[in-house]
Every structure is written in structure tokens, then in C-alpha cells.
Amino acid sequence: VEDMVSPDTCVCRTDEGRLVEGLREAMLETVIPRGEADRIMVVLGKHAGRVGRILEREPSRSRALVQLERDEAGQLVPLDYDAICHYVGGHEDD
């Protein structure tokens, strides 16, 4: 996702670099990272916008146990796959 045009419409960039405008949420599918060191961003719910890492996956229930970054207590939250996506942005310290 490159830009949010409205709360339910966005502009996305394909792997080939082409921009696609006017996409609605129902047209998109979240990508759950497979690597252990990959980061995620919470996109739905009260933790939306937070970045973290998946500690455990429950593929049969489409859920993951996520540890949120920038949380002194190392908060762990169980989240549905639909509530998270692969995060490829920079670190908050960047």
C-alpha cells in the first residue's frame, strides 16, 4: 500500500512497480510474513499502526501471537491474520 486515499480506498504498488489506484479493502489480501525475523504492522483494532514480530503462528485458526515493539512490558497480543500484514518500512529509530 502506497497511499490511503480515503478510509476504505488506497493506492498500491505491484511487485513490478506499477501503481494501481482505487482499490478497496475487499479487493486486498494481507500478506503474513514467513520468516522468523520479519516484522508485521497491525492494521485493524486498538493496536492499529503498531509494529511487532510474530512469536507463534496458529495457521489452523488464522491467528498469530504478536509481540509489539516499543512496549516496555513486551506486550503479547493474539491477533487474527486479517488484523496484521507484512511490514517492510523502516525502524522507528531510523
From TrEMBL:
GO terms for biological process: mRNA splicing, via spliceosome. The keyword Chaperone does not apply. It is found in: Nucleus. InterPro entries: Rib_uL2_dom2, Spp2-like. Its main location: nucleus. One of its GO terms (cellular component) is spliceosomal complex. It holds the Pfam family GPKOW_C. The keyword Nucleus applies. Keywords: mRNA processing, mRNA splicing, Nucleus. RNA-binding protein involved in pre-mRNA splicing. Belongs to the MOS2 family. This is G-patch domain and KOW motifs-containing protein. It comes from Sula dactylatra. The lineage of its organism: Eukaryota, Metazoa, Chordata, Craniata, Vertebrata. The gene is Gpkow.
